[in-house]
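As a next step, we paired sequence with structure tokens, yielding the entry below.
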Amino acid sequence: MTGYNNSDAPEESAASCLRVAGVAVGYGDAPIVRDVSLDVPDGALTVLVGPNGSGKSTLMKAMARVLPVRSGEIRLDGRPIGAMPTREVAKRLALLPQGPIAPEGLRVRELVAQGRYPHQSLLRQWSRRDAEAVEAAMQAADVIGFADRPVSELSGGQRQRCWIAMVLAQETDILLLDEPTTFLDLKVQVDLMRLLRRIAKEDGRTLVVVLHELNVAAAFADHLIMMQDGRILAEGHVERVFTAANLREVFGLEANVLRDPASGRPVCVPVVTPDADVMSRIAAQ
């Protein structure tokens, strides 16, 4: 799907601006994430995959300080994120949650401008720097052509690009995106992932993305994490993590893992057992 070369993959290292150590998170009395530790690779595209209910989105919300941790610690730039001022966190880390909805009538430029909120204060109102950041974000996300149109009039892929432009305008080094490709056609998913990969590679930003489509994840991730039952079952370079054994253990999926001849990336092909009725009809012909 992409012209990725294995030599482009980042070296895995303990050094990280965003670190998760022994974290447990839940809703009410129900634990969802259990004893998770993770060093997010800087300047790379990290992808979280796992079955529904495995804790991917819950972990991401905890990393963004939307959900408090029950135990353990999340550190941003070496500091406990829970003790940092909200505005300071928002200048370093941006979150795009699942299925964001824009207010009725809001235009693209207005939506993207909301990304500048962390940079505003009583003493610092809208400035030329804010306007420049909004324009640059719209250019990067390729939404400048419909900047004055209502967000509600756009296609699903166009809307997602607008939301991505908004978090780009926030000008953070770390971006967390929860299922940004859900309900989009495969071509639109690939286009969005190419955009995110470019942001990581060309801008040196750190991205963490939750995805459901396994082959899209394998095609674009620098660092792949598989979660199951609130825990990390496997993580690392795609070549090491995206294996038939891990797909079977994490997803209960019987699949053959092949290599894309163009990129060298792994691709999973589900094992399909021929239906007995189909086989009998073929034999009768």
Observations:
- DSSP finds ten helices and twelve strands in the chain.
- Residues 1-14 have pLDDT under 50 and may be disordered.
